[in-house]
Amino acid sequence: MASGVKPRVKVPKSASAGEVITLKTLISHPMESGQRKDKEGNLIPRSIINRFTCDFNGQNVIDVKMEPAISTNPYFEFEALVPEAGEFTFTWHDDDGSTYTDTKPIEIA
Fold it and tell me: Taking the mean position of all CA atoms in its chain, how far away is CA 13?
């Protein structure tokens, strides 16, 4: 994982079967456009999160394509139906080839 890139997600620990829950995600990422220069005048390489996905037990919940104009530290809040106990997998794709993943389990109460 690149230095300083940290995904954070908030998922309830449990839900009722069939309940719709709110998921919150944020990834600390500089979102470099490739157009800025460092102190020595060298271009800082482009590094932008260009896609975010969330799956629940292997089924896609959300798939977002992001454009270069998205802000630093992208935040997403969305809802998902919880049909059963399982695991959410959150994945951020960087156009430099890096992938950042976090997983969170959820139980049925």
Answer: 19
CA distance 96 to 45: 9
Which uninterrupted H or E stretch holds 69?
none
Distance, in Å, from the CA atom of 38 to the CA atom of 84, rounded to the nearest integer, reads: 49
β-pairing verdict for 99-108 and 86-94? antiparallel
**pLDDT per residue as tens, the chain (109 positions):** 455 788 999 999 999 999 999 999 999 988 888 888 999 999 988 888 999 999 999 999 999 999 877 888 999 999 999 999 999 999 999 988 999 999 999 999 9
| Residues in contact with 1: Cβ distance below 8 Å, sequence separation at least 6, in sequence order | 98, 100
Q: Cα(53)–Cα(89) distance, rounded to whole angstroms? A: 8
For 16-38, b/e burial (b = at least 16 CB within 10 A) is eeeeebebebebebbbbeeeeee
In the DSSP assignment, the letter for residue 83 is -
